[in-house]
Please model this.
Amino acid sequence: MSQTPRSLRELQNHSAFVERHIGPREDEKREMLSLLGLTSMDELIAKVVPESILESEPLDLNESCSEQEVLQQLRKLANANRVFKSFIGMGYYGTFTPPVILRNVLENPAWYTAYTPYQPEISQGRLEAILNFQTMISDLTGLDIANSSLLDEGTAAAEAMALCRRMSKSGSNIFFVSELCHPQTIEVIRTRALPMDYRIVVGDHRRDLEGLEVFGVLLQYPGTDGEIHDYEEVVSAAHEKRALVAVAADLLSLTLLTPPGEFGADVAIGTTQRFGVPMGYGGPHAAYMATRDAFKRSLPGRIVGVSIDSRGDPAYRLAMQTREQHIRREKATSNICTAQVLLAVMASMYAVYHGPEGLRTIARRVHRLTTILADGLQQLGFEVTTRHYFDTILVNTGTRTAQLLATARSQGMNLREVNGGSVGISLDETTTSEDVSALWSVFGGDNLDAAVIEAAAQQRMPARLLRVSPFMTHKVFHSYRSETEMLRYLRMLSDKDLALDRAMIPLGSCTMKLNATAEMVPVTWPEFCDMHPYAPVEQAAGYRQLISELEQMLCAITGYAAVSLQPNAGSQGEFAGLLAIDGYHRSRGEGNRNICLIPSSAHGTNPASAQMAGMKVVVVNCDRSGNIDVEDLKAKADRHSDDLAAIMITYPSTHGVFEENVREVCRIVHEHGGQVYIDGANLNAMVGVCYPGRFGGDVSHLNLHKTFSIPHGGGGPGVGPIGVRDHLKPFLPGTPLPAGEVSAVGPVSAAPWGSAGILPISWAYIRMMGRDGLLEATRSAILNANYIARRLHEHYPVLYTGPNGMVAHECIIDLRSIKETTGITVEDVAKRLVDFGFHAPTMSFPVAGTLMIEPTESESRQELDRFCEAMICIREEIRAVELGRFDAEDNPLRNAPHTVTDLADEEWRHLYSREQAVFPVASLRTGKYWSPVGRIDNVYGDKHLVCSCPALSDYEDKPA
Amino acid sequence: MNKYMVITVIGADRPGLVELLARTLVAHNANWLESRMANLAGRFAGMVEADVPEENFDRLVAALERLQADGLNVMVDSGLSGQDAGGFREVQLELTGQDRVGIVQEISSALARQGVSIEKLHTETESASWSGETLFRAWADLRVPDDLDMEALQQGLEVLADELMVDIDLKSQPTA
Model:
């Protein structure tokens, strides 16, 4: 063998991950390019991206590295965190994630790679899990209806304020917040109240409400100091003023305490973190909201309801969902879309795993240990100032406070300092009697006899407020006590669903790319999981380094000067970005600028966010090719020159096109004193190619769950950091616990770095891809989209393209003429795709009657071809309807999806064959996803709204 | 002296219907004032406001009725006196909501309660973003009594907006 040996560098192949992340191989890319009449990726990009914004400089990032290397680097960062035992409380508690849930939900791609259940037929498993969540919440809070998750307790409280404003008949603009609320909650509420012109009064609920007209009241139960108050009188006094009452309630305590619904509360909110979801240095966790039946239509966020399918069998779906995107866009009181579904599923499974008795046992244990701790401390001569408590006590420590906190830290424990002279101690599920002894010893008690103290310790919850009503009586909370049964329940549910581990999810605007396993692994490391968001910063050195490096990498990618990772969803990012703009205008004495221009093609969240930021929306038209109508923009910018605050644009546009005139659009707005907000939903088409911070953007939010590989989790977690140019830096969100200097803009999330616990995913993604890999990902995403557009365009018209006939990273196919001639709708095509084993593309966004397809870079050539084959086959079926070969009503499209039950019908009643129904292409015979239910009736579900687990009899009696 | 009339026609759609109608009017020296025509699911419907010399009126009506032979059902209403004088102003209503039975009835009865009449109504259904559910959209020109202020009208409808989950937008200037 005379061949020269290959170089070591080549053999080490540091870019191996890049090749695994990106679907098409090099030779396939060449073939795909040639179908497009192109010879190179450079040529492709030059045809797609306008020259005026295209940059050739490589990204200012490291080279790619391997999975092993990145895991080693993250291991080092994890080791730099020092995880202390946390007794801080404040809404964040230690919890044991049952291993069967950890592995089979949180670490299971069948759950974490799923999308929001807009297509209910292929989402029955997680819809059931979320319905369990809603049932658990409404049972525990004693209220009629619960949503399936909000982002965190602070924002949930702000959403409760908005609900109170909308439903209260009081004319007051004051929202009263009890001083016993968690401090971060109060700060988030202040941020949200300011642009809406609500006045926040923080005070003592026993004293300061008297004679005060308010539209709503927020109480904490038990208080942040641990004290359990009887709120019944406060609630009726508030109701007399026509105010509504929201209660932030600790879920575990509600297993033992009278629930808010039973003492008259109108709304209950809180976090479900301590139900098996790790603290993760602040998130992600699912918050909850429950309310009375009368206010159900004002409940923000997503709600799962029960409906029926085409056979009349019960089936789950998202209820009342058109509220979210279309309705009340400009009068929105909430902009929330992506919530925290994966975490809500975990919390609900924790409840399924433990059942009501198991939860009560945990709660009783926590309370018992707290009473023992308190009695011991009193024996040691310390005054416990909390009279009635569940798991939290306040100890009067006077001048010794700082020293005691330091002693605790030196023994690996974090306590909470309260008002300089007290120490707060919160116990949780993970606390042991050894921990209680260790706490005593911090307070100088090495010689206490735990057994004697335990024998004397009394229950310390107020007798009047002990819960008597049953909860979680539904069978689902009683059926899975053995791990075998639990394991099979989780598997049975996930098997019903179609997630990325089964097939491509070509949802336009959602960027359902690979969530690589190596990126997910560190998320469940205890060094990242078990850290309290308000642990002293010096303990979180690893996190801080990771956060600052991620911020730098995102700056390099976007061309912005600074990034805030606090917003824990895209919606929060939009809100934070607009607040930055507003803060900037105010700082220049131009607080009158409140007009926000939004193109008609915008995502519904944009106007909702503008509304919440106190801005007035003015819609800018789009021209025939889907671009912003520059003349209309000029006219409107001119008309509002004196009060123009901002424009919100999406780039590439929601139509999937790189608009040629984006620089001009930005210039016009700047000339009229406005700021440019560029929605980063489509950043996946820009990384390494162009930079929003350089072609005219002043601020953008980025969806880490789209472009930077955080999984969608079936509807969350999302992370929506914002990047800003230098002049907006002082207006990034402030910290939720302000110390010293008050920031110009308040916090938008309850934790300083939002969902810090999942930031390792994006960090790992960017590191492993490196500067060249990220660029190749962008190019491949654009290639894949253009390949699909080209393969489909002779079958379906492609709606918008750029000047060279190319699309960006997604394409819209137009089905409107098909509907005219055949009556076949986008919904029919979407459901028929289920029969082919695919999740449908995005329906009717941004144009009604169309499908938007985004393949991402991660889909291989085979999968793209399989998808195109399905779409072409469906087109042939439509043609058969056109030609009268299929009946206009009884055809495989209208009746899709077809279930095994349909197939097993004794008599096949359709005018097409069984084979046509379920095996329209031969490859399905060897592997097919079967929809567990037939097409779901949306109208029925909203008319007969049921949003908790239906009784078993409902499954037995079919509606007529 | 001219006689004022409103002609309503309905029939299966085919080319030449409008022309047929127009020819009939011209033949009787009638003046075509304003009209609304639509084709919905293969049916043609139209309303024409016209005036005609009084002496031609009966013959015109007879001629219009004969159009039945051509597949057009015609109704003539002549008991009107043209536009009402004053006391009202025009307001545009735009409405988006989840489609369901009764949506039009609920809106129209809320309007009627406030003495508002609907001059023009155009409705559509379309597929909603993301969910693909059916969305109902309506555009209407309203005649609002001068003594009803916009805020009161808005409030009357806002109650419905929560109930029906609809977005209601009112504009007092006529749009182009």
Observations:
- The radius of gyration of chain A is 28 Å.
- Chain A has four domains: 105-352, 356-465, 545-729, 769-893+898-933.
- The CA atoms of residues 64 and 770 of chain A lie 4 Å apart.
- The mean pLDDT of chain A is 95.
